[in-house]
Amino acid sequence: MSKRSPKPARDKPDVAEPSYPSLNFEEDTLPEDEYEEEVEYSTPVTRRRSISPRKAGYGSPRPMTRSRSSHSPKNVSFLPPPMAPMGDEEDLDSSYDGSVVDLKDEIMEYLGAVYAMICGFCSRHNIFAVFFMLFIVFYFSSPPTVNPQPTFADDVKTKITAQDDLLGRALLLIGKRLADPTIAVSDGPLAFTVASGNQSQLNSAITAVQTILTTHFHDSITTERIQTFSAATTRDEVRSLINSLLFNANGKVLIVLGHIDRLRSTAPLALQTPTDKDNAPYKNPVYVTAIVDEEAFSAPLTRKECTANAERLLDTAWTSEGGLSEDQASPVISRLTTFNICLAPGTF
């Protein structure tokens, strides 16, 4: 293959110019789309090479007559510029030693090692993820440990019966009526007396009863407490107060009657009809008569002694000073004291 010898440089330092393979330029048959590539080297020497579209892969060239010198240089590079002076094509072919292939193999080997390392890391962490997911599944599938809410009987036993057995029995009886409304229909209103020699002790006991009932039977009963009775309270005022409480709760109410021993004249007679089994307008109410007397209830009493003291206290209060007669007071007292509880000292 023919070689093109470089022209001697004029008035320039002697610099070894690179030789290029002949590309067979034809001055009279240059293609229309021919372009020139300007290659600059570190030396002051500049050469231009014209490449035909056929060699660049753009199809068949269209012959035309054009002078090679008429092309203006374009900075378009489809072929990488040589990094060092090249010789003949034979020298270029013989200089290829396969280093690019070796580099590719090295890159692939390196990527393979990285891939293996990543796979190993992922496999270890995938096992951890599996165990973590199994833990999450078992944790949320197992029912949480929740302390069960105490039942009504449990609350009565721990909070009331432990302090006073009779009061605990009375509260269980109230709960039985609330659980089965037919009992109230057949038995009528329930009334019992709670007596104590200390006002604070009596208040604590009554509050405990109200709390348990409202906690377990808040949809079945309400609790009311009357502490306004006095010697000046009239019979009509007592009747109106009780009837309003019964009406508002539709009879499903526990009414604490405080200080009824203070009632005078005919005022206690207002309690007779609401507590009567046959004539009561509502069958569901529960009446708790609260009595405080330090002299009568300070010492421990038997059930018989407790009943006797409660009846005597009310009878003395209502029949003295021109109040009720024995025949009038007896029916009311008997309805209110059918079940009597005297709190022992030191309880509640």
Automatic annotation (TrEMBL):
Transmembrane parts of this sequence: 113-140
InterPro entries: LAP1C-like_C_sf (IPR038599)
Source organism, top-level taxon: Eukaryota
Region (Disordered): 1-92
Keyword Transmembrane applies: yes
Acidic residues bias: start-end ranges: 25-40
UniProt keyword terms in alphabetical order: Membrane, Transmembrane, Transmembrane helix
Cell compartments where the protein resides: Membrane
Compositional bias (Polar residues): 66-75
GO cellular component, one term: membrane
Name of the protein this chain belongs to: OmpA-like domain-containing protein
Organism encoding this protein: Panagrellus redivivus
